[in-house]
Structures are given as C-alpha cells and as structure tokens.
Design brief:
The chain contains one helix and eight strands. The protein is mainly beta.
C-alpha cells in the first residue's frame, strides 16, 4: 500500500488565525514524528483541524517555506458530519475521558467567538 506523507486540503473556513488561500498542504506522520497519519483523513470527508504553521528551511537553509502539520498528541482533528463535530471536545472532570461529545458547528463558532478575540 502507498503511504502518503502529506495531503492537499481545501480550506472551507478559518475559525482562528488568518489564512486567505483556498488550499493548504498538511504534512502527516512518517512513522517517527508523532503526527496524525494522512490515512486517517479519507478523501471527501470534512474535519475541524488545528494545524499550526511552522517555518521549514530547506537544504543549507537557502529557502524557507511555511509547513502545516497534522497534530496527534491531543484532540486536534475532529470529524464533521451533518453540521456537527464529534470527539473529546471539552475536558470534563470525573468522567470517562474517552466519552464522545457532539457539538454543532454553529455552537462551536459561538464558543470560539467568546474566547478568541
């Protein structure tokens, strides 16, 4: 099977930060980087993703580029289905940490508007 190390992603909406392009390239895991594997994101699916931008230097530091990476050590990627996201969205004390929570995209936008200024 082919192992892809990056994926080209269409940006439908930016919830935090600034990005004006239509597509970004997101690097996944090569087996040693503690990132999400590109295979976790099937073609045609929609996700809320926290993708930090990092500056990457090429050989001898001659060229710099911005690289986006798929996080894995936490809940950085949540699937979107029928205008809802699901996963471990909010940490809750005294509960099973693996409990799946569901939140509408509209409510997510409202909550982010309160905390992201």
């Amino acid at each position: 099977a082919t192992m892809y190390l990056s994926m080209r992603v269409e940006v439908l909406e930016v919830l935090k930060g600034k990005y004006s392009g239509k597509f970004i390239e997101i690097e996944g895991d090569n087996g040693m980087l503690c990132r999400a594997s590109v295979s976790q994101f099937p073609i045609g699916t929609e996700w809320i993703m926290a993708v930090p931008a990092q500056t990457k230097q090429s050989f001898f530091g001659l060229l710099e580029s911005i690289v986006y990476t798929a996080g894995i050590c936490g809940e950085y990627n949540l699937p979107v289905e029928e205008n809802n996201i699901s996963g471990r969205i909010v940490a809750q004390e005294n509960t099973n940490s693996d409990k799946i929570q569901v939140l509408s995209l509209a409510r997510l936008r409202e909550l982010l508007a309160l905390i992201v200024r």
